[in-house]
Amino acid sequence: MLTPAEVKRYMKLLGVPERKPGLEALKEIVHAHLMLIPFENISKLYRLKTAGFQEFADITMFLDGIEQYHFGGTCYPNNYHLNQLLSALGYDVILCGADMKRPDVHIVNIVSINGNEYLVDTGYAAPFLEPLPLALPEEYRINLGSDSYVLSPKDVNAHSELTLYRDGVEQHGYLVNPKPRSIEEFRKVITESFRPEATFMNNLLLARFCAGCAVVIRNMTCIKIKNSTVKRMSAGTMDELVSAIEINFSIPRSVSTVALDGIEFLTLI
User: Fold this and answer.
1) What is the full DSSP assignment across the chain?
2) With 90 as the cut, is the pLDDT of residue 269 above it?
3) Which of 56, 101, 207, 229 could form a disulfide with 125 if both were Cys (CB 3.0 to 4.6 A apart)?
4) Residue 266 falls within a domain, yes or no?
5) How many folded domains does the chain comprise?
């Protein structure tokens, strides 16, 4: 459980006042999180190269990274620390695993408010700016640029499935396992995410969202989306890439230069 001082610090970074738990207050927190704390793996690469760090960033390291370098994180720190914040604020929230190509390689939150369940995922590099309802009579769709995220009604096992389509072609997605989990149960998959062949050891992904817009950097390409308009700009050199990261995400170029030194980008899934 976060301490009151940690809650206060976290909420101050989000720029959100503490309020009684409720759907509108939750929407405010989730929206601020997606706008201000990016999905990014620069911090993962930087901490590995400068300190040999191959573990889960605790709350102090997570908040320090946001304050000092404008870091965020991948699904594990972003969704777990938000889980702890919501719990400390009095929300009925559980941490859950989600299957992708392998079981339980992603984590999400399920928040219950007045008997209704909502999916909260700030760690998927996706525009989930509001809690997503899980009691669905039909598909729930979020469109941004050429991307369409489709959340399906629960299956017979009460599992919810989310799928990303890009230009109408299925890209990837996940199946939520709706049982409470502890972060300790994901230690192995977190450790494996630092293997030399792991996805975020060989690729770059940063994403930040606001209503109807996004900025995403995938390897050498910067993508800016505003409603249905998509603009892509390719960096020709690593220097241009670190400049784009600094301009769009405020992560210091000195940090990105160290993080990306020697990396040979593969194709992101």
Assistant:
1) ---HHHHHHHHHHHT-----SSHHHHHHHHHHHHHHS-EESHHHHHHHHHH---S---HHHHHHHHHHH---BSHHHHHHHHHHHHHHTT-EEEEEEEESSSTT-EEEEEEEETTEEEEE-SSSSS---SPEES--SS-EEEEETTEEEEEPPP-TTS--EEEEEETTEEEEEEEEE-S---GGGGHHHHHHTTSTTSHHHH--EEEEEETTEEEEEETTEEEEEETTEEEEEE-SSHHHHHHHHHHHH---HHHHHHHHTT-------
2) no
3) 207
4) no
5) 1
Establish if 38 belongs to a structural domain.
yes
Q: Judge whether 254 lies within some domain.
A: yes
Band (227; pLDDT cuts 50, 70, 90): confident
Indicate which CATH number applies to the domain containing 243: 3.30.2140.20
What does the pLDDT average to over 24-29?
A: 98
**What confidence tier does 266 reach under pLDDT thresholds 50, 70, 90?**
confident
- Centroid of chain to Cα 12: 19
Residue 154 is predicted with a pLDDT of 97
Tell me the residue type at 228: S
List the domain range (segments joined by +) for residue 138: 4-260
pLDDT value of position 207: 98
240 within a domain of the structure (yes/no): yes
Structure token pair of residue 59: 């709350």
**CA 44 to CA 230: how far, in whole Å?**
28
**pLDDT tens readout for residues 129-154:** 999 999 999 999 999 999 999 999 99
